[in-house]
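Exam revision sheet. Question 4 asks you to relate a sequence to its structure. Input first:
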Amino acid sequence: MSDIIHLLPDYLANQIAAGEVVQRPSSVVKELLENAIDARATSVQLIVKDAGKQLVQVVDNGIGMSETDARMCFERHATSKIKSTEDLFRIRTMGFRGEAMASIGAVAQVELKTKPHGAETGTRLLVEGSTVAAQEPAAVSAGTSIAVKNLFYNVPARRNFLKTNAVEMRHILDEFQRVALAYPEVAFTLHHNDVEIFTLPAGKLSQRIVGVFGNNYKEQMAGCEEETPFMSVRGYIGKPEFAKKTRGEQFFFVNNRFIKSGYLNHAVMTAYEGLLPKDSHPFYVLFIDIEPERIDINVHPTKTEIKFEDEKTVYAIVHAAVRKSLGTHNIAPSLDFQSDVNFAPLQPIRMQHGGEGFEKEGTFPGFKVPSSPKKASASGWEQLYEPLRNGQPMQQQEERITSPSGMGLLDDTFAAPMTTSSKTLQVHHKYLLVQVKSGVMIIDQQAAQERILFEKYMASLQKKMVTSQALLFPQTIELSPADSALVKELRAEFQELGFQFEDFGGNTIILNAIPADVQAANEKELLEELIEQYKNNLATLKLDKRENLARAMAKRLASKLQPRMSDLEMNSLVDKLFGCEVPNYTPGGQKTLVIMELNQLHDLFQKG
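Answer key, structure tokens:
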């Protein structure tokens, strides 16, 4: 039998490695920016054309490379960072595996110009598909310039999988922001199609945050710092009142390397517990400094996921640091130890006579205190049987019934007339009960509204039948760079839904109109929630832009509709639900209704 195992050719091995390292233009941006940082650059320029498909160029003033190093950097597993096994556990640089340049050179046309400081001449190197096309001396500036042209030119299938320019540019912005935030002492610039996007001078972290996200961040940042023998935490968190409906500006850096960690995010969110509105997300940029021996960063090709030796301790310190910062800046509620609570003067409570007892004036409207609890205790239960004594059916009795304790058995907010003529009954403002031939149908009110709205918006997007309402006062909305790029990418779809906006420069838009059936209030919050839901769908589902946006719009609006409904509104909701193509489920697969058969109801009351 002949041998069948053989070594892969270098160009093919590099292309396989490129499949992990170079997934899109932003992958190239990440690797080149990190190389510039490792080269101890103090100024870095990023130049992009056609969202990186045509050109990604990084120019730095770092230490540069010799002629031999320039050639060696394109070899597989060639690195200046690792010399022994022990070095793997003391990594403080950004790159170390020596795969990036070899992978990039395998799927693009690369021009490298470099010169060490003090050298008379530099080196120019051309690489195409892992092959060195030319190498020659050149008169260049000190530092390194790497131009990556025509990405995936020799792998058409990979190039066809690239998204639109707006999508790819959004990913490039993400990578650029992460590196720029991690190294505020380094000056950065970004140009796209000869247009300047960012100019970030070297400075403090607070200045870099404002430079990246905008001047409105000046007043919402609170410093965060905690030193322990195990690790240290430093950075900035956002004040609760500035929390957004999108979770974009949340960054963790471990030893200046950006990471993604739902575990640490939970530590931050629990520190904010009780301070944030529902579905709101605070801003934070937090740096964790820890001994390299206590972490493992070599667990993911992009190195955005790491393992901690002691995760629970890291969690506790991050949580304590954020909580301390909130207390230091008088954001979190705290006890006043200066006053003696035993002798605090009592505040007079003004009472006014209400319909049934006394109602406290001011803060808690609707909370009713019985005028005579003892009297209610004596007669409360008797009220349950009063209708029967008078010959009235129970369902027609709409008077408030109080328990012996004086609290309402049926609170006013949950009371609903149960007349025999009503087709549909609302339960706790969440569910609808409908009598059907086989038993009882229970409808989830919010899920039903989500299905109805989704099909409505999908029809609107397909037929391009736009109905908008102009805002009396157009809203100026400032977005993060990533969200701004997303909104511009979805401009056509937003307009087909009924949103009308125009660019105001930078990352700011002016919202002039919203869909006709959306209540005109908190337009900025609506847009932020819509973007957040769209991004959540994008991360978990494979959907086209229209369906994703329709799902996001339906889910967000369904959660905001008024829960209390009249008989007419309830019956209309049921009719609309069964007018849908798929009435049984929401777009996300949640049930909108269940049916309890008569025999199931009968079994509930059978004796065991």
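Marking note for examiners. The first helix runs from residue 10 to 21.
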